[in-house]
Structures are given as C-alpha cells and as structure tokens.
Amino acid sequence: MSVVPAEALPGSVLAVQETVREAAELGPRARLWPALGAVYRAQLSRARVARIPLLFVATFQSIGIMILMRGVVDGGGEAQAVVAGSSVLVVAFVALNLLAQYFGQLRAGGGLDHYATLPVPPAAVVLGAAGAYASFTVPGTVVTAVFGSVLFGLPLTHLWILVAVIPLAGAALAGLGAALGLLAPRPELATLLGQLGMSAALLLGVLPADRMPEAVRFARDLLPSTYGVEAFARTFGPHPDWAFVLGDLAVCAGVGVVSLAVATWAYRRAAVR
After folding, report:
1. What pTM does this model have?
2. What is the DSSP string of 148-173?
3. Who contacts 82 (Cβ-Cβ below 8 Å, separation ≥6)?
C-alpha cells in the first residue's frame, strides 16, 4: 500500500475537502427564537395527551378547596384570597409540580443527551418546555377563577388581569420547577420536591394571610406565586390600587427571569455530566 501525499491529490479533491471542513466548522447555530418556537411546539404536542387529564385534576382540586373553604369563609378579603390562591394553585400544579417531574425524568432517562446533540440553545429548551407546560394552565385557571367568583359573590369585572398573572406567575413557578428537576440527583427526589413546592403554594397561597403566624407569613413572602395571588386578589376590591397590582406583577416578572436563568444554568450543568 502506497501513501500519496496531500500535495499530489488533484486540486478539485483538495477544494472539496476544504469546503467540507469549512462547512463543518462554520455551520450556523440555531437562533434562540426559532429554536424556542420549535421546542415549544414539540413540547405542546407531546404533552397534549399526557397532561390534559392532570390539568382536570388540578382544576377539580382547586374547585374542591374553594367549596370546602366556603363553609369557613363568608366573604371580604378572606374570600378574595381563597379565590386568587386557588386559581394560581392550578398554575403551581402544572408549572411547578409537573415540570419538576418532567425534567427529573428527562435527566434520568438520558433525554438531555438528545437535546445536547442538537444545535439548540439551552435557554430555548428550558423556555420552550416551561412555556408549553404553562400554556396548559390557562383554561383551568380561568374556570377556577370564574367559579370561585360566582361561589363567593365576587365581581368578575377585572378577571382580565389573569392575562398578566398567568404568564408571569407561570414563568416564576416553571423556572423553579425546571431547576428542581434538573438539580435533583434522582427523579424520585425531583418528584418529591415538586410536590412539596405545590403543597407550599396550596397552604401559603390559599389560606388567608391574616390568620397565619408571623414566621409563616415570612415564608409566604418567599414563595414566587404569592405575588401573583396578591395581584389577583387586589383586583376584587371596588377600587383596586393598581400601583400595588403592578408592583406585585413586577416582582413576579423579576422572579421569573431569575428562576428561568437558574434553570438554564442547571440545564447546562446537567447536560455536560
């Protein structure tokens, strides 16, 4: 067998090799927004069948809690807190609990290796999955809010605030759920952490804050969903203070940015291991 030096190869062959090498080195990486849209559509299609039954469970759970609380709470600020907390609880069940389970199973089953081989930015994977799961909370949250308002005799005038509450609270809770699932060493622990987070949203978000001890109120202020609950509850009054509503929504938005950034970092960390 004889070895032919590269200089002896025809010029056309060398040109083809150089072109292939440059194409491999200079191949464009997918941009964030197109990649985000592709991941979002894929996750939405995948979760449509598997998650819709769980969405019904989340909605019925919140409605059942309001019916139970109806025998304890008559109206006023406590009723507003119960309705707002039960509505945001639907978001917490899906965006926090289910997303933590999903990323925990994805990490344990090697699904992150599949995404790592694609030219998709890590932020697109996290945001796409979070957006898809949060989208499933919209009908359940609206149904819960309308049912609770009718049950407690609250006005339906400002229910449009859910247009801001759902995505902002969903972003904060989805980022937290994704981070828990990606940082947990085992999927069972990710499931446990997600359920504990949802239980915290239930106990600290639905129960009126006035009846809580001071230490529990402090823990409530640390929960991202609290500010979505407060923003929604303030709109039930005859003359809502929109400055406080916007302030609560701004806190939700800030926490959402931070939690999604942490989830993106956790994805990079888990993908390289």
Report:
1. 0.83
2. HHHHHT---TTGGGHHHHHHHHHHHH
3. 65, 66, 69, 73, 148, 152, 206, 207, 208
